[in-house]
Amino acid sequence: MPDSLVIIPTYNEKENIEKIIRKVFSLSFAFEVLIIDDGSPDGTASIVKALQIEFPERLHLEQRSGKLGLGTAYIHGFKWALARKYDYIFEMDADFSHNPEDLIRLREACVNGADLAIGSRYVRGVNVVNWPMGRVLMSYFASMYVRWVTRINIQDATAGFKCYRRVVLETIPMEKIKFVGYAFQIEMKFTAIKYGFNVVEVPIIFTDRTEGESKMSTKIFREAFLGVIQMKINSWFRSY
Q1: Does some domain include residue 201?
Q2: Against a cut of 0.85, is the pTM above it?
Q3: Which family does it belong to (predicted)?
Q4: Which of 20, 52, 79, 122 has its CA 20 to 30 A from that of 132?
């Protein structure tokens, strides 16, 4: 039986969702997929439901009533996965910015000793395709800022392509994870390191979406910028 679950949050991803699901299921390893759809008005969930007829054992769908945030979607997925048999639990975007073939490399990193494997854009220079230079610089310097504030040695602190060993998600108290946007990605890495888990960066090439619309916003960036300081201060008063 498959031991690996790929969690993909969606909001208005009708252009990408069928292609990304079929690509994951075409890989040499038998991953399962859980789609967390936040009430997409474009019919994303209906496409997933149709594909469930073709992939009844491997494709799962959880529908939520509205756009509740990336972090809460993943936490919903983590709890769903922990209630079942999975040993390796992945985060991945629906828009092909994360190459599904790299799922195998992330899993291998965890099989070989990592507790959390991160698909890193910056561990070997800058490996980003189709981003405007301004966004590349913003992302790169955001990771530098996170390292400076938190003192964690992660080159790609905001990365959202990851594989967790089950024990990491069993250990981290999800009710204490506060952020819902891209700061969520930083907080999960920071917390895993604080608990003493082995975090490994696996170099990937990140390709910006070609279909659908980006979910990045000034509000999300502001949450991440200010949230890092708050997260660091809060860590002084927590036991790990």
Answers
A1: yes
A2: yes
A3: Belongs to the glycosyltransferase 2 family.
A4: 20
